[in-house]
Amino acid sequence: MKRSLLLLLLALPASGLDFNDPRAVVAAALESHPTLTRMRAEAAAARERVAPAASLPNPMLMAGVQNKQVDLRDDEMMTMYMVGVSQTLVRREKRDARRDAAELEALAAEKQIDSARAEIERDVLLAWYELGATDAQLAATARIREMIDAVVASARVRYEVGTAMQADVIRAQLQGSDLDHETLRLRGTRRAVATRLLSLIGLPVDTIIPPVTMPENTDDLAIDAPAAPPDDHPALLALQAEVGRAEEEIRLMKLDLRPDLDLEAQYGFRPTQRDMFSVVARIELPFRAKQTVEPRVREAILRRTAAMIRIAEVRRELTSAMAEAVVAHEEATNQMHFHHEVLVPQAQLAFESTLAAYQTGNAPFDAILTTQTDYLRLRLQYFDFLLRHAQAVVSYEALRNGAAGSMKP
Q1: Helix, strand, or coil here: 199?
Q2: Cα(260)–Cα(67) distance, rounded to whole angstroms?
Q3: pTM over cut 0.70
Q4: Could you tell me the mean pLDDT of each successive run of 10 residues in the chain, 409 residues long?
Q5: Which of 191, 219, 322, 341 is deepest in the core (most CB within 10 A)?
Q6: CATH number, domain at 383?
Q7: Burial grade of 95 (CB within 10 A; 0-12, 13-18, 19 or more)
């Protein structure tokens, strides 16, 4: 009873998810993916650092006694009880630079979320289309296996009446076993792909995914844009924010050559004398700027240069990956059409006509084995090219919409 209840609970998340709707699968993955949750928390934390970056430090309150004698008696002229307050006055330009740097850090984190979202969507769709292609190949193999069963039955009948050799029956059975072997391979591939897809969605890996129906034709998936990343690509915007942050740090380091002012005010009480007050201003003397400030300025300049070079690198990587996706799409499209319109129909017609001829005794047994092998090979190849066509479009759209890394289809 407990086991049945557990299996029911495990099946509940999957029961409400339509695995034949790729967009619903993507939405489920984006909703529960821990990477996005973590990155949102990090971006929110970076955004919370903006306001404190532009604030003045807290004032310091002081209280105590000065010049108390060691025997704890007061000296009429020297002993004084005092209170005071001090405040460091940070320059406005420095606080603005800190705030701008914090805002750019938060912006970079937010743009990285967009890139991660595009990459997760890409990974889910790639797995979904692979699962659909594998299910289609399993279905095609099952249909041909039924035809081979008819061949085995026909060979057995002809053997029993003495018009065929026993070797024909054995070879037909062997051909059926080869198809069973192909089915086992495809089932193993399906389990691996299903495990990857379920992990992306956040469901238990033993969740049963029903057969996914992949379209027989994916011509509606097309690439109609140039192979170049847009200027508002999230990965590029994140790096541009890093460049801006480095520039603000350079400005901040240079402002350190103009030290902040520290003001201190004290009020002193002497029991037998007049009260006293003091006002003190302190400022750091930048005598060691060459050892403390200038190296930090050079460091920030080098970080800015590295970030600018990284923008060029990422733009080149994105352009190359998008161009590869376009080429893969064109090749897969041509192969898909040729297989669908020419090779597969011809192979199917050859197999079916040879099977009919064999059953009437007008074709040799070798002919039916050859045509069956060709038909199965071309049928499976068609779904491979169908998969490559869809994956090329998915990869291209992910790179265009924000993915920072490429996954070759």
Answers
A1: helix
A2: 31
A3: yes
A4: 40 65 92 91 93 90 88 82 92 90 93 93 93 92 81 68 65 78 92 93 90 76 77 91 90 83 91 86 81 82 91 91 89 89 90 79 77 87 91 90 66
A5: 322
A6: 1.20.1600.10
A7: middle
